Amino acid sequence: MVEKLRHGRRGLSILALAGAGLLALTGCTGDPGPTVTLPAQADGELPAETGKQIDDAVANAMAMAAAPGAIVGVWAPWAGSSLKGYGVTEIDGKTEVEPDMAFRIGQNTQPMTCSVLLALVDKGKVSLNDKVADYLPGTVGLTGITFSNLCTGTSGLGGYRGNLDNIFIQNPERIWSPNELYNDGMATKAADPGDTFSPADTGYVLLGMALEAATGKQMNELYNEYVFTPVGMDRSTLPSPAKTELPDSSLHAYEALKVDGKLQCDAPFDESKLSSSLGYTSAGVVSTAADVHAFSQAFATGALFKKGTADVQKQTRPIGDKAESWQQYGFGTYHYGPLYGQAGDVPGFITASLSDPSSGLTIVVMLNNSTAGSGLALDLAMQLASYASKVPAAKGNTAPGLDLPWSAGQMQDAIGKLAVCQ
To answer: Which of 342, 314, 319, 311 is nearest to 330 (CA)?
Structure first.
């Protein structure tokens, strides 16, 4: 019996644009979008002590994840930044990971999909209270589901990953239709719409289908128009399902499965060629750390939307009775204390991004072995956020005094509990 090692861990094992502070973020068509002020990014590297803390934390996380490589960015606008590649691109390889290499960002796609929705709301093309069934009349199982439900984790839909992950890993180039993914998730329905928090990937797949139906455009066109172009994300795309290679084809990615209860660490699947269709508008985007940083900061500040629409993403809801009170869900993303963030996994990659809308502190993490699950990447991002939050201000700047409800030590301990293939 082949069994997938459990991926997500959303409980305690969770969790500035570079250059000028004034940035006009406008849509590429139609009325200009809002002009916002983002925190100016201090030039230069972070202090040497903080740099060593980051390097040591990444090395530890790579070992715990059995990942040969990683890309990690830490931006503290009041102090400096660090963006590095770590390790090598493949197991037993010699090609070093470069910080500008593109990778699959997993569920960090979700806030991008919700950004398209909010932009269309601003343009009056859809409403958050619209029934999804009105746009997909031939799709069953949509009774009572609104656009808002899909981005707040309250659609009631079950997830498709539990049933399909093993197939994804063993057949990474297979092309899936969004309907196949939706039908599997719909068949594992979790609750009635609006009843409970259940952030299944299925809801974001359904959202992509509905937005395409509402606009008559493909989702990559919508991402380009409302997210990638306005934010300047020129290395980001939702690839064609048939285009399975990464732009940086030297970057490999791995996942090991359990066979008869034993993790096959010595024979992980190479997921370097993988169809975006298995994640679609939930987890299909390919991007870089610099692009994810730019989006994370723009999204956290609401820079892409009019004020009333931006206020929607500030509203939060609990994620479960056992979660800490500082762990909430907003609109397409989690809120961990003051930071907005998301963690993701697709076969071969685990990723995380965190951003503080006030100070601009932003963390982006990628490791190229997904066996340990997305929780490990998120724990690493939170560990790095703890280090960076304490960095003193560069000359002429003022430190924000960020108070995070976790410590770097707690997150390092949590990473150790997720270790695989040791």
So the answer is: 314
Taking alpha carbons only, the member of 245, 360, 297, 284 closest to residue 108 is 284
Reported as a single tens digit per residue, the pLDDT across 95-117 is 999 999 999 999 999 999 999 99
Q: Are 284 and 277 in contact (CB under 8 A)?
A: yes
Tally of CB atoms within 10 A around 45: 13
Q: Position 146: which residue type?
A: T
Q: How far is CA 47 from CA 9, 55, 387, 394, in A?
A: 32, 12, 11, 9
Residue 422 in any domain: the answer is no
CA distance 417 to 386: 19
Domain harbouring 88, CATH code: 3.40.710.10
Note whether 295 and 114 are within 8 A (CB). no
Number of domains in the chain: 1
Interatomic CA distance for residues 83 and 99, integer angstroms: 6
Paired sense of beta strands 362-367 and 349-355, if any? antiparallel
Amino acid at position 207, single letter: L
Residues 206-259 pLDDT 10s: 999 999 999 999 999 999 999 999 999 999 999 999 999 999 999 999 999 999
Q: Are 142 and 132 in contact (CB under 8 A)?
A: yes
With a CB cutoff of 8 Å and minimum separation 6, the contacts of 196 are: 154, 156, 190
Q: What's the rounded Cα separation, in Å, for the pair 89 and 67? A: 9
**Quick check: is 209 in a domain?**
yes
In a domain, 306, yes or no: yes
- pLDDT, average across residues 378-394: 98
The distance from CA 38 to its chain's CA centroid, rounded to whole angstroms, is 21
Cβ-based neighbours of 73, under 8 Å, separated by 6 or more: 81, 82, 83, 84, 99, 289, 290, 293, 362, 363, 364
| Structural domain boundaries enclosing 110 | 2-417
Q: Which of 142, 134, 166, 150 has its CA nearest to residue 201?
A: 150
Are the C-beta atoms of residues 381 and 412 closer than 8 Å to each other? Answer: no
Is the Cα torsion angle 153, 157, 158, 159 positive or negative in sign? negative
Q: Could you give the CA distance from residue 184 to residue 173 in angstroms, rounded to a whole number? A: 19
